[in-house]
Amino acid sequence: MSNIPYASAVGSIQYAVQCTRLDVAYALSVTSIYQAGAGEAHWGAVKSILKYLKRTKDMFLIYGGGELILEGYSGR
């Protein structure tokens, strides 16, 4: 595993998450934990995230043109 760029790949995913791809934020948080002791299964998970990002690069969300209304709730 020493020659696999695990930390670099996770960093690249982190950049994408911060800029535009919030849909993989949870998967990134799970894989980020194992940067020091990553194994084959962890590398497989990172590769799956990268494949997903590549497959869905042309997909995006379109928000409606209506007025945005902020609603908040409290447990009080």
Structural commentary:
- With 76 residues, this protein is mainly alpha-helical.
- α1 (6-19) runs parallel beside α3 (40-55).
- The longest helix is centred in the middle third of the chain and has 16 residues, at 40-55.
- The chain starts with 5 loop residues before the first helix and ends in a 21-residue tail after the last helix.
- The protein contains 3 helices and no strands.
- It has helices at residues 6-19, 25-32, 40-55.
- It comes from Sesamum latifolium.
What secondary-structure arrangement, pairings included, does this model have?
Layout: H1 6-19, H2 25-32, H3 40-55
Key structural traits:
0% strand; Retrovirus-related Pol polyprotein from transposon TNT 1-94
Helix share, percent: 40-55%
User: Could you list the spans in which at least 5 consecutive residues all have pLDDT below 50?
Assistant: none
Number of helices: 3
SSE succession: HHH
Give the CA-CA distance, first to last residue: 50 Å
Which structural class best describes the helix and strand composition?
mainly alpha
Instruction: Provide the β-strand percentage band.
Output: under 5%
Largest β sheet strand count, sense and barrel closure: none
Mean pLDDT across all amino acids: 85
What sort of overall outline do the alpha carbons produce when their principal axes are compared? elongated
Number of strands: 0
Round the Cα radius of gyration to an integer and report it. 17 Å
